[in-house]
Amino acid sequence: MIQTLLTSPVSRWLVPVLLLIGSNVFMTYAWYYHLKVKTWPLLVAIGFSWGIALFEYCLQVPANRMGHVSNGGAFTAPQLKIIQEAITLIVFTAFTLLVLREKPRVHDYIAMGLILLAVIVSMMGRRGGGGH
Fold it and tell me: Which of 52, 56, 62, 72 has CB atoms 3.0–4.6 Å from 27's, for a disulfide?
């Protein structure tokens, strides 16, 4: 099934990235939504988070499998992790602004920009394969 989804060069990287975006939306809600609902007891917040995390894993695991070079994907494991972190920051920033109604500081944006720069550095040079 994985090979079927990865038949074109674009889908080798696009499908995993889209799945990572979806998983990060679930992850961000699981980790941070309870901050908005202060009336929930801690155990309710934990249960809510666990329930949402299941959906995150249902997207995250296939994204990593499909995206990894060992399954015909375009990325090494470190590249997948760095991409995932960058997506997390983008999704988290939108969540912070739209749901929590908090505005990140200038220093936060600079730090996030440096991490996004790391994605560019990670994608430079040899892509997928070789392990070097």
Answer: 56
Q: Does the structure show a pLDDT above 90 at 116?
A: no
Instruction: Please say whether the beta carbons of 69 and 29 come within 8 A.
Output: no
For residue 22, the tally of other CB atoms under 10 A from its CB is: 18
Please write down the HEC assignment for all residues of 84-106.
HHHHHHHHHHHHHHHCCCCCCCH
pTM exceeds 0.90: no
pLDDT tens profile 52-94: 999 999 999 999 999 999 998 999 999 999 899 889 999 999 9
Q: How far apart are the first and last CA of the chain?
A: 28
**Token pair belonging to 31:** 């980790």
Residue 26 DSSP SS3: helix
Structure tokens at 78: 């470190």
Q: Are 104 and 93 in contact (CB under 8 A)?
A: yes
Tokens of 118: 């790391």
The CA distance from 62 to 19, in Å, is 8
